[in-house]
Fold:
Amino acid sequence: MIAAARMPWPEAVTVCEVGPRDGFQMEHAFIPTEVKVRLINALSRTGLREIQATSFVHPKAIPQLRDAEEVMARIDRAPGVVYSALVPNERGAERAVAARVDRIDIVVSASDSHSLSNANMTTDEAMARAGRVAALGREAGTDVTIGFATALGCPFEGFLPYARVEALVARAVEECGLARVGIADTVGMANPALVRTTMEALRRRFPAAGFSLHLHNTRGMGLANLLAGCDAGIAHFDASVAGLGGCPYAPGATGNIATEDAVHMLEEMGIATRIRLDALLEVARQVQEAVGHAESAVLRAGTSRMLLGARRDGQTKLGAS
Amino acid sequence: MIAAARMPWPEAVTVCEVGPRDGFQMEHAFIPTEVKVRLINALSRTGLREIQATSFVHPKAIPQLRDAEEVMARIDRAPGVVYSALVPNERGAERAVAARVDRIDIVVSASDSHSLSNANMTTDEAMARAGRVAALGREAGTDVTIGFATALGCPFEGFLPYARVEALVARAVEECGLARVGIADTVGMANPALVRTTMEALRRRFPAAGFSLHLHNTRGMGLANLLAGCDAGIAHFDASVAGLGGCPYAPGATGNIATEDAVHMLEEMGIATRIRLDALLEVARQVQEAVGHAESAVLRAGTSRMLLGARRDGQTKLGAS
Structure:
């Protein structure tokens, strides 16, 4: 085997906080609007520069986010922070524009089975709709991104052929004119080899596009997949405070990678996030209190640096290794 | 920055199961000998080729493993499986040899603070003792390995200078004649950058030595660190069935990387372990039942492949991504 060139890790990465959307929509109970607003405001003060604040889906489809307009109206817009919203269709785009979101995030399922199950249309139909939503955003002067759910694994179809993912990205970039493309491991199936090879190939094929990774920690590989993304030069990751998000296919399983776990690892590796981990951990605690649970290693165990305050007599057993 | 050459991942790796030692010693309650024997026998039938079965420490130091002789006498020795034991001192080595262990595993804390706290002697003194233990093993014709606790992070001293770790390995390899050296992230502080640079440097400096990594998942980085080890060409990892092991410095935190999570990720990446994951998961369930807990993502969520059996109607919400 020939050793390929190793790309240096990015010097800095951007973490997009998706907890208020991907997390809150998975909570059984409706989180009061004032709690959402308080938590989003707190997240705004951690150094995060992108927050997916809500989703303009039909209130009957996701009643947990039926207060999208009110959330957008009531949050304090911190300077330098992009407040985006997930938008499923034209009606959602109109609502999002009216609510003055900074960015519209479209999601399309890369596999037909998941698209039919999730959006009641084929991927091809969803892409046509994405094009219309992108056009609406453009007309309104609002940034638009697209993310491909199940691109790194579909619960019905398994791992998609790379060619299918590439063709979808080509359509997004070349037909819809979208410059930023998310690649999602929606149900936490992906492994680091798949992440690295997929992202390397996509970056080679679309050198001008900005790629982000949306990872779940369902099978414990979330941070390994983040590392694989860094190996491939990806510098944009979604994550969810307190690890909210769940996985509809794996009851009891963890959700998105926890923002604080991702930030902790990146900063420990010397990759800058510009996020203040102590402030983020404080918000994670508030989120945990608000929703009654969390899936976050650092929230549970503390940071590596905090450990250095450990007292010597708290220990210890012969042979601990 | 100049891109370094990327080493191909190992084609196959060996996973050493340390649950019966590192895991069982952390359990508050004594696990009955017959349960230990049953679980070790079950582990022996999964394809695992190395099992650290117990520890010949003083029974008062770790009463949980006071049945070391009985465990070694009663287990079925599966052909091709190496049954090792942790040995802290000369007396332990004599006991281990008498119990016919296949291999003696020595542990020395790389930091003085941890060594003093854990073994009541400096690292230097512990190395001298390790040399005597190694000599005893050699005389008896028993394989000996050494592992350096806290080499990738000490709760008292933080991250050790690489030069200290290298000097200890040099002493182990060149003075004690030990061919296999473990590098441990004892309290789960290490990050992938540290793991990769440390292991690459050690492999360059000691090309004839066999290195293994002992990783904990305390801060969620366990599998990312495993990946970083593979990046550095490491093909030998410790792991603990059901994620047993705990971390004395982080109450409630997870322990060693779970063997089933490690095997799952490696096999998904195309790196052979020769371990049958279905059989291993069945043992992990038995372990979970025996000790009343587990820290294992795959045990909780199922494997990526199992997910493909998921039924379509189990889902799903618009906007899941």
Observations:
- The radius of gyration of chain B is 19 Å.
